[in-house]
Amino acid sequence: MHAQNNQESVLQYIYAPFAKEGTILSYIQDIQRKTGINISYSSSFLHLNKRVKLSGNEHTTGSVLNSILQGTGIQTAALNGKIFLIRESSQQQYYVISGFVKEMISNELIIGASIYDPVTRKGTVSNAYGFYSLQVPDTCAGVIFSHIGYGPVFHKLPPADDGPLDIYMTAHNQLQTVVVSGENDTLTSQPGFINMPLSYLTNFPALLGEKDVLKSLQLYAGTSSSLESSSNLLIRGGGADQNLYLLDGVPLYHTGHLFGLFSIFNGDAVKDVSLYKDGFPARYGGRLSSIVDIRTKDGNMKEWHGSVSLSPVSASATLEGPLIKDRSSASLSIRRSLVDLLYGKRYLEEYGQYYMYDINFKLNHLIDKKNRLYLSFYKGQDKMLINSTNPIVPLFDDYSFAWSNLTAAAKWTRVINPRIFTSTTATYSQFHNLFSQTSVIPLSLVDSVFVKGKGVSRIRDIAIRNETEYTISNSQHLSLGGGYTYHNFAPTAYRTNISRGDAIQREAPRYSMSEFTLYAEDELNLLNDRLTVRPGLHVGALAQHNSFHISAQPRLLVRWELPKSQYIQASFTKMTQFVHQLTTPVVNLPTDLWVPSTENIKPEHAYSYSLAYQKQWDRKWRFSSNLYYKQLKNLVTTNTVLNIFDNSDQWEKKVIDGKGYNYGSELMIEKLQGRLTGILSYTLSWSWRQFDKLNGGQMFPYKEDRRHNLSLAVKYRVMPKWHLSATWKFSSGAPFTLPVQIFPDYDWGRNIYGYLDERYSPFANPANYLPYSPRLNNYRLRSIHHLDLGSTLYLGSKKRFQHVITAGVYNIYNRNNPFIVSFDQFSFFRIDEVYPLQLYQYSLFRALPYLTYTFKF
């Protein structure tokens, strides 16, 4: 009875609060000071800095404590003249920490950083804008922040209310402020997904010293190139047109410089690269094989830095720094070829002319702690002229090629609350290409006809979209969004001017259409995070005046974590592609056309299945294997090999549809840490196509089928400033069609509906020679393999100015790899003689040394 009275007297002690609003700690301290009552509690579960409000009706110690502790799961108890704050045994309180992960020196946002609570073993990763959200218990003492390119950070978490918490990380083995290297510059690799940081681009030898994002990705299982040394990325037997390339969120339709030998992505401007081969997140759509998501640098918000690089084929310069310190920054990168500058005018007149350039610009402005604005711009262009006087390739015509990309994006990101992050983006994209041919046709020794033909193709996109991420809990993350794109296609327009006669002009119809997308995805971590389930749905629709196509594309990924750092993963994805590329059977020429789905041409579909296993040892070694199967429907190809600009108003009549099957297995071993790091990857794959109107309706190997792909890449750190590297790549030869017989067709009867190959129809003879092939792609080129060696030296690491010297040799054992082949029977002939069919192989590169110098400040 005495204890009960004592309890009531302590909790009912008259007390006048000092204010209606304050922190929990301020009220507890005020009660103790004014009443002399001792209050006992544990700061490990009590958020002392949390601000609370009173109703104004509290006049006792008990009523004030009950109000400020409401919803915390903490109860008051009195004993022996003291007040105890006790947490309910059945409850554990959680709160959310959120913010941005940034680089210490530049304030550059870090993508893919891991945030981990070592006690609860719960974690998350920073998104594409460096934002994270994690729910932690009130007993959490601290959280670990880590990233493969940065030193880990352990941040203590004193009891606090929900609020922004920005984390700053320091790069591994950072040489002064701008050179990043070391044993930890590896990438994140999971089945079906690769994330590659900036530092990884300098790990291995590069053709002519040009750092190339797409060629770096080709070292990994499931990836290859269409031709030797090409940057065209082939994923699991799909064509180059089946990859969605995003530059700061803007889709690109052509990614090659110099006919695909180099990509348009300037390595000095790139910040982060993500490749998805399967298990596509629901926010992506529009292509069948892969997603390549590339982000450029935001710009240093602390101080100005820059670099200048010289390679055998190009020069580039980068400048970045703050416009308003810690608020606004800008980044500018420029790259231009040196071919036309290094070689004299006389040389160019004989062999042809070529130049290209890239410009990347980005503006990053922090409006406040919750709002940020990005503006980005890219312009790239190629021009090439091949003269008829070229001594290497004898021509009767002059050819001119010009193609360009232009993109712009405005992006607004907002932290609505610690659990919800959203981004809204408006984009503009244009791809334009021009092909022209000038011919002089002799009529007699003194007379000739001049003919000039020009073909133009153009695509313009204007789009807006929104992406929202909602962290419901550590075990559930919801993503949803949608967008609208206005497409304007002008596939081909052809014009011919003739010195004698009327000009010919064919204007192909233009296509204006609207594309709509909606998506939702829920990522669930179950059974103490051992099981991850990620269901999603992407819905796309394409509408124009005479057709409408809609596609529901379900996605499902399941990952099961096994003991000893092992897990298995299975995924299913449906992807739909509303645009198609019509290609000619030659090297990656920009004359290939992008055309939309129409009333007569259906969208392409892919149904992809994969099963993978991964194992890691001591964070030093990683092994993964993957089985995949993909069924493709409504694939399109052309039923002719005529110049794609001919009969431009008839292009829909050249298209036939069919289906395809891609399947195979991938194996990969990675050495992640130590002085020696590297990758060994192998892919065994099949890629088939089947069209009712081709090859007698029978399946045949796709032109991008590569049965075996093997890559070995190693890097050895001799000392912190000196690295040696080597790569060896092997690929099976590409399929191609070779006739087994050719025979004369004097009445040209076989060419009524076929293609007349002028090589077998010489003007001096009325006979037309027809090639006969029993099936398509009945032969393969020789296999391709080459060994490349490289060395990188960093100088001046402790000074304001730094120097990077990169040297190496491509194809050091001088392998004569096939680039393209052609067959011919004769150049000059007599009708009464027999000439054998001959096959000619053309190689692009033999042993080729390079030396690249970079100056950084």
From TrEMBL:
Segments forming domain TonB-dependent receptor plug: 217-287
Keyword Flavoprotein assigned: no
Subcellular location: Cell outer membrane
Key words of the record: Cell outer membrane, Membrane, Receptor, Signal, Transmembrane, Transmembrane beta strand, Transport
Protein name: TonB-dependent receptor
Family matches, as SUPFAM superfamilies: Carboxypeptidase regulatory domain-like, Porins
Chloroplast found in the keyword field: no
Organismal lineage: Bacteria, Pseudomonadati, Bacteroidota, Chitinophagia, Chitinophagales
Domain of life: Bacteria
Membrane association type: Multi-pass membrane protein
One Pfam family of this chain: Plug
PANTHER family, alphabetized: HEMOGLOBIN AND HEMOGLOBIN-HAPTOGLOBIN-BINDING PROTEIN 1-RELATED, TONB-DEPENDENT OUTER MEMBRANE RECEPTOR
Gene3D superfamilies associated with the record: TonB-dependent receptor, beta-barrel domain, TonB-dependent receptor, plug domain
